[in-house]
Amino acid sequence: xxxxxRAAAPPPAPGLTESRPSLLSSLRARADFGxxxxxxDAVDDRAIASATLVVRAGHQRLAAAVDARGRFVLEExxxxxxxxxxxxxxxxxxxxxxxxxxxxxxxxxxxxxxPVRARIFDAWxRAAAPLYPSAKAAETMTPRELQAFVERRRxxxxxxxxxxxxxxESSVWGARPPSSEALEECERLAAALSSEDSSxx
Length: 201
Known about the structure:
Blueprint: H1 2-7, E1 15-17, H2 23-27, E2 35-41, E3 52-57, E4 60-65, E5 71-74, E6 80-87, E7 91-92, E8 94-100, E9 107-115, H3 116-128, H4 135-140, H5 143-153, H6 160-172, H7 180-199
Helix pairs in contact: 3-6, 3-7, 6-7
């Protein structure tokens, strides 16, 4: 149940957080052509040492890995718009576009990636929310307990909740990190469950 409560916490916010350069550096001319920062887990801010970056700037395509602290360093990038794609096994990838040069806000930046597990549980939680008997129950009932409650009350005519519950249990609490395909299937089942629930009201 403790693991369930941790998983039920609000989904973390992914994406890029720029640093706050000093007032002096922000008054200087836009002359910084570097991209330096960290890739971290959006849930606990832990470094993701397995992350990789792909930067597309003009006709150039540059790839970089992070170090053990999740730090990446890309210097002397060409001026103009750059597209940065960040990926790591077991995480939902992120991308962002910025224009170079900058005034220092892209030095010490943090890129937060959301674990696929967290996204899967969030999709299940949104789809299952109307089925709980009370707000308090949503904090304490496990997915399997909710499935049993729904089956006893016959709240849904089909067993989409069962398929979704099985996928959530194996993905969120399984030994291996879930794949992006598992996330896609979970979101499909969650959307079908939500539409089915709406049609039975």
